[in-house]
Design goal:
The complex is a heterodimer of chains A (302) and B (449).
Chain A: H1 2-5, E1 7-18, E2 21-32, E3 36-40, H2 47-54, E4 62-69, H3 75-83, E5 95-98, H4 104-109, E6 113-115, H5 128-134, H6 137-143, H7 148-151, H8 155-175, H9 190-202, E7 208-212, H10 220-237, E8 240-244, H11 248-254, E9 257-262, E10 265-270, H12 272-276, H13 279-286, H14 290-299
Parallel strand pairs in A: 3-8, 3-9, 6-7, 7-8
Antiparallel strand pairs in A: 1-2, 1-4, 4-5, 9-10
Chain B: H1 2-27, E1 28-32, E2 38-42, H2 44-81, H3 86-111, H4 117-144, H5 153-168, H6 174-193, H7 201-221, H8 223-226, E3 232-233, H9 252-255, H10 263-288, H11 291-301, H12 303-308, H13 313-339, E4 341-342, H14 349-362, H15 367-385, H16 390-394, H17 404-418
Antiparallel strand pairs in B: 1-2, 3-4
Helix pairs in contact in B: 1-2, 3-4, 4-10, 4-13, 4-14, 4-15, 5-6, 5-7, 5-13, 6-13, 10-11, 10-13, 11-13, 14-15, 15-17
Classes of the chains: A alpha/beta (302), B mainly alpha (449).
C-alpha cells in the first residue's frame, strides 16, 4: 500500500468536461513513489483524458494534481500552496508542484513528468540518436547559454553535449537500438519505435513516467520484452511509472497498483490481484446486468 | 520476333488507339462555308500522320527504355557503394575560391570582349548572392522550424527601410545601421510571431502573407517617413574607415593609384555581401547542432511531442521567426546601401514567392540545396534575358525576356516532377554515433610486405 503511505502524485477530485460531455468525473487516486501503477478501463472510460490532464495537454475543469519531489508532503502544506496563487514551491524539500496550474512543457521540464503517446510521436525525420538528444533540451539549452555560448563554442557547452551524448548512448544500449542510432527514427519497425519513445521520455530525467498503451500493437514476445524493460527502468532508476494498458497480461504481470475507471468514474483501486477478482471490474469488462452488480456487491461473492 | 517484335506490337496498338481517338476529333471537322452552312471536312492524311508519329514514338521508347534502365542501375549502385569522388570533397573549397575570385573573373570576361564586368557583378554576382542570403534566412523558418512563411519579404523591407532611414535621416554609419537593421527586423519577426503562435500550416501562411501586405501598405502610405511610392533615394553609400570606395578623388581606389572605374565599389559591395552570406551560413549550420536548432527541427517533425519533452514551443517558434527575420533584415540593409534607393516596388509578394520557391526547390533545410536553387533560378532568369540566339530560331520578333517567366515556371514544374523533395533532399544528421568514413579518401588495404 505504498500509494497511500508514500504518494508521488495525488489526484484530487479531478473532473474534465468537454461541453456537455463529462469525460472524467470527480476522480481521486494516488500514484505511489516507486510503484508501477496501471490505469485501466474499457474503451472510452477517460483514461487518456486523465493522462492529458496530468501532463498538461488538457486544463482540467476542476480538481487538484499535486506532485511531490523527494519526499511526502503533509496535506497542510499542499493546501497552503493551493490557497496561494503559486504553481510550485521554490527550494523546499520536498518540492511540491500543482500540475493543473502548469503549462505542458513546464510539467515536463520542471515537475519532471514524461510521457509517451498512444499513437507513437517520434521525430520521424531525425535520427534515433537525435531524438534522444532533443529530449535533453532543457539541460543543453542552459549549458549553451541560451545558444549564445554554444554559438561561440564555449567548452562548458561541449562538455554538456558530450554528457548528453553519453546518456543517449546508454539508453540506446538499454532498449537495444544502438546499432540503429544514425538511422531516421521513422525507419524503425513498430516495436522498436515504441521502445525508442520510452527511451526518449527517460532521457528527460523524469520522476514519473506516463505510458499511454505501451504494449499496443506488440506481439507476445515484444510485450514480454517491454515488461522486462519497464521493470528494469523501475529497478535501475527508481522512476515511478503510470501506465494505461489494455493488455491484461502486461497489467497483471507488472503492476503494483491498479486503478480501474469506467465512464470517468473510479470503480476499483487496489493491488492487481484483488482488482482482478473485483465483481465491479469484471462487470465493467464483460458487461453484466445492473441488478446483478448490485446483488454481487451487496451480498458479496456467493 | 524478339524485342523488336514486341516493340512493333505495342507500337501498332498505340497507333490504333490514336487512330480511334483521332477519328472523331481530327479526321472529321466541321466548318462553316461562305453561305453559313456547316460542311464536313475530312482530314485523313493528318490522322494517319498522327497515328504514325505516335506508333514510331512508342516503338522507339520501348526499344530504348531497357537500355537506359540498364545503364542507370550500375550508376546508382556505384554511387552508394564507392567512396565519393575526391571532387566532392573539395567542392566547397572550389566553390568558395570561385566566389572570391568572381570579380576578377568578371573583369577577365569583360576584357575578353564579353558582357561588361559591372553587369556580370551586379546582375549575376550580387543578385544571386542576395537571394542566397534571403533563402538561407528563410530556410531557418520554413526549412528547419517548418513554419510556412509567405511574407518573408516584409523583413527584407523592414531591414532596407530602417537602414535607409538610419543612414540618411539620422546620419548613422552603414556599419552601425547594418546590425541595427537586422535587430529591428528580428523585432518585427517577434511581433508577427506572437499573433500566429497558435496557427499552423495553411493558416500561418495566410497570416504571414497578410502581414507582408500590411508592411507594404504602410510603406506606401506613411509618406512623411517612407516617401510613399517615390521611396527613399540618395541613401549614403557605405565607406571603409571613412574613405569612399568610388573613383572620385579622395576615395580608396584613387589613393592607391588605380585608374577611375565604377567596378571597385561594386566589387567591394560584392565582397561585403559574400561576407554576410558566409556569416549567415556559419550561424545557421552552427545553430542546427545547438539545442535551439534541434528544437526547431523537432518542432517541424512533431510539435506535441516537443511539448511533452519540456520544449517551450512558444519561445522556440519566436526564436525561429526572429532569427530568420534578422538575416532578412541584413539582406535588406545591404540592398538599400547597394541601390541607394528603396521603394515599395521592390517588396511585393512576388519576392516572397521567389524566396519560398528557392527554399522549396533547394530542398527544405538544406543550405547547399538552397544556394544551388538560387543560382539556377535567379541566374537562369537573368541568362534567359540574353538568349538573343533564340531569335535565329523564332524570328526577329522573338523577345526572350518576354518568355523569361514562362520558362522559369516550366523549369520549376519539371524540377518538382524530377525531384519532388527539392534538389537536395537528404538530411545530414547533426550528430552521429559512428564517425562517417573520411570522405573521398578511400583506404586501400596496405600491401603485404
Amino acid at each position: 500500500m505504498r500509494w497511500l503511505a508514500q504518494p508521488l502524485l495525488t489526484v484530487d477530485h479531478l473532473s474534465m468536461r468537454f461541453g456537455g460531455l463529462v469525460a472524467v468525473n470527480d476522480l481521486s487516486f494516488t500514484v505511489g513513489r516507486g510503484d508501477i501503477t496501471a490505469l485501466i478501463g474499457p474503451n472510452g472510460a477517460g483514461k487518456t483524458t486523465v493522462f492529458n490532464c496530468i501532463t498538461g495537454f488538457y486544463k482540467p475543469t476542476s480538481g487538484r494534481l499535486a506532485l511531490a519531489h523527494g519526499g511526502t508532503v503533509a496535506p497542510k502544506a499542499v493546501d497552503a500552496l493551493t490557497r496561494s496563487d503559486q504553481r510550485r514551491t521554490h527550494g523546499a524539500t520536498p518540492e511540491l508542484f500543482l500540475l493543473e496550474r502548469m503549462p505542458d512543457h513546464a510539467i515536463a521540464s520542471e515537475a519532471r513528468v514524461a510521457r509517451t503517446f498512444q499513437n507513437i510521436r517520434l521525430f520521424a525525420g531525425m535520427t534515433v540518436l537525435e531524438n534522444l538528444i532533443v529530449a535533453q533540451h532543457k539541460t543543453l539549452m542552459k549549458a549553451s547559454g541560451f545558444s549564445l555560448g554554444g554559438l561561440l563554442g564555449l567548452s562548458k557547452y561541449r562538455a554538456a553535449e558530450r554528457k548528453a551524448f553519453e546518456l543517449a548512448k546508454a539508453w540506446l544500449e538499454v532498449v537495444g537500438l544502438i546499432d540503429r542510432a544514425d538511422d531516421p527514427a521513422g525507419d524503425l519497425p513498430y516495436g522498436a519505435q515504441r521502445r525508442l519513445e520510452i527511451a526518449r521520455a527517460m532521457c528527460t530525467n523524469p520522476v514519473l513516467l506516463c505510458l499511454d498503451e505501451p504494449a499496443a500493437g506488440l506481439n507476445n514476445k515484444e510485450s514480454a520484452e517491454l515488461t522486462r524493460l519497464l521493470r528494469g527502468i523501475r529497478e535501475q532508476t527508481g522512476v515511478s511509472i503510470l501506465l494505461i494498458e489494455h493488455d491484461m497480461s502486461v497489467v497483471m504481470d507488472i503492476s503494483d497498483h491498479v486503478v480501474v475507471i469506467e465512464y470517468g468514474v473510479k470503480i476499483a483501486d487496489d493491488t492487481a490481484a484483488s482488482v482482478k477478482n473485483d465483481p465491479k471490474v469484471i462487470a465493467a469488462y464483460l458487461g453484466v446486468d445492473d441488478d446483478e452488480v448490485a446483488l454481487s456487491t451487496g451480498g458479496g461473492p456467493p | 520476333m524478339g524485342k523488336a517484335g514486341d516493340a512493333f506490337k505495342s507500337a501498332l496498338l498505340a497507333a490504333l488507339v490514336t487512330l480511334g481517338l483521332a477519328f472523331p476529333i481530327v479526321a472529321l471537322r466541321t466548318d462553316t462555308n461562305l453561305s453559313n452552312q456547316l460542311v464536313l471536312t475530312e482530314r485523313w492524311g493528318l490522322t494517319f500522320i498522327l497515328a504514325a508519329v505516335v506508333g514510331a514514338g512508342v516503338f522507339l521508347l520501348t526499344l530504348v527504355r531497357p537500355v537506359l534502365a540498364a545503364r542507370a542501375t550500375p550508376k546508382v549502385s556505384s554511387r552508394t557503394a564507392a567512396p565519393p569522388h575526391p571532387f566532392r570533397r573539395y567542392l566547397p573549397r572550389i566553390g568558395l575560391a570561385l566566389l572570391i575570385a568572381f570579380p576578377l573573373i568578371a573583369s577577365g570576361i569583360a576584357a575578353a570582349g564579353g558582357p561588361g564586368a559591372l553587369k556580370l557583378l551586379d546582375n549575376y554576382g550580387i543578385q544571386i548572392l542576395t537571394y542566397v542570403l534571403l533563402g538561407w534566412g528563410l530556410n531557418i523558418v520554413v526549412g528547419l522550424a517548418g513554419l510556412l512563411d509567405l511574407g518573408y519579404v516584409a523583413f527584407y523591407a523592414v531591414g532596407a527601410y530602417s537602414s535607409a532611414l538610419l543612414t540618411k535621416t539620422f546620419g548613422l554609419s552603414f556599419w552601425l545601421a547594418l546590425p541595427l537593421a537586422g535587430i529591428l527586423a528580428a523585432f518585427w519577426g517577434l511581433l508577427i510571431g506572437f499573433p500566429v503562435l497558435r496557427l499552423r500550416g495553411d493558416y500561418l501562411a495566410i497570416v504571414t502573407l497578410a502581414f507582408a501586405e500590411i508592411v507594404r501598405l504602410v510603406l506606401i502610405n506613411w509618406v512623411p517617413v517612407t516617401g510613399g511610392y517615390a521611396g527613399l533615394s540618395s541613401i549614403p553609400k557605405p565607406t571603409l574607415f571613412g574613405y569612399s570606395l568610388g573613383s572620385e578623388p579622395g576615395g580608396i581606389p584613387s589613393l592607391i593609384g588605380l585608374p577611375p572605374s565604377p567596378v571597385y565599389r561594386l566589387a567591394f559591395m560584392y565582397y561585403l555581401l559574400l561576407a554576410l552570406a558566409l556569416f549567415t551560413y556559419w550561424v545557421t549550420q552552427k545553430l542546427r547542432s545547438l539545442p535551439v536548432g534541434r528544437a526547431w527541427e523537432a518542432m517541424r517533425e512533431d510539435e506535441i511531442a516537443c511539448r511533452s519533452l519540456g520544449i517551450n514551443t512558444v519561445t522556440t517558434k519566436l526564436s525561429a521567426f526572429a532569427t530568420g527575420a534578422f538575416f532578412g533584415g541584413l539582406a535588406g540593409a545591404f540592398f538599400s546601401a547597394h541601390q541607394s534607393f528603396v521603394s515599395p516596388k521592390s517588396f511585393e509578394f512576388m519576392e516572397s514567392a521567389v524566396i519560398v520557391a528557392i527554399v522549396v526547390l533547394g530542398g527544405l533545410g538544406s543550405a547547399v540545396g538552397v544556394a544551388i536553387a538560387a543560382v539556377v533560378m535567379i541566374g537562369g532568369t537573368e541568362l534567359l534575358r540574353e538568349l538573343d540566339a533564340l531569335k535565329a530560331v523564332f524570328g526577329n520578333d522573338f523577345d526572350p525576356a518576354q518568355y523569361r517567366m514562362l520558362l522559369f515556371g516550366l523549369a520549376m514544374v519539371l524540377l518538382m516532377i524530377w525531384r519532388p523533395k527539392g534538389l537536395i533532399s537528404t538530411r545530414e544528421p547533426t550528430v552521429r554515433l559512428k564517425p562517417q568514413p573520411a570522405r573521398g579518401a578511400p583506404s586501400f588495404p596496405s600491401a603485404a610486405e
